[in-house]
Amino acid sequence: MDRDQRVATLRREAAAIAHTAHQGTAAEVPNCPGWTVADLLAHLTNLYRGVAELVRTTAEERRDHWPPKQFIDRTDPSLIEQFEACAWELEAVLAPLRPDKPVWSFTRDRTAGFWQRRMAVETSVHRSDIAPGAIDPELARDGVDELLELFARGLRRASQVPATGERYHFHRTDGDGEWFVELEPGEERGVNVRREHAKGDVAIRGTAEDLLLFLWHRPVVERLDVHGDTSLLDRWFVLLPPM
Fold first, then answer.
1. pTM reported for the whole predicted model
2. Every domain range in the chain assigned CATH 1.20.120.450
């Protein structure tokens, strides 16, 4: 998915979130325990504003840009309007930038393209938390790539539980996409990711959307085709705690 498609997806999904929020912000978000729609809006509003500032200045160092400052909370009476304004501001900042433009990120991909993808994926997943509708399959594939290639090592380091060499094979069923993930035993807590077909201890097959939502700890297991050691599904989130 290219820059323009990602920015268009951000625009569309943010609009869908705003539409749902206008129907009420007190509803609970089952996929995010303890959150209401208002909490989700506040999270995204603060994130959008922080990323927009980071990208606008094309910051190449962390400085004081990350994590985003919390300038609004769920009780603000202008919450929906602030969300909409920050979403459109973020879109305007991201849209003209070349994906290879250097911009700091918390991963080894320090480009504007990282943020164009990251914000489209983040917004799409949270839209699916509160409103029906499919996530674009190619963006979902990008999101699986992002989590496994850029986030998995950091998530693994957040766990103190030793791995024993567990091997996961993720297989997309609605297009190209296979990922073989091996969790190294030992204190280094290494993660090896390869885009290939290989036999794992568990094989997890599903659409790009369902693989993405599973990796972001959403309750979609019943929609996946799982072969092998099914206990490793829960163990994934012990070894790689969700953000």
1. 0.96
2. 3-130
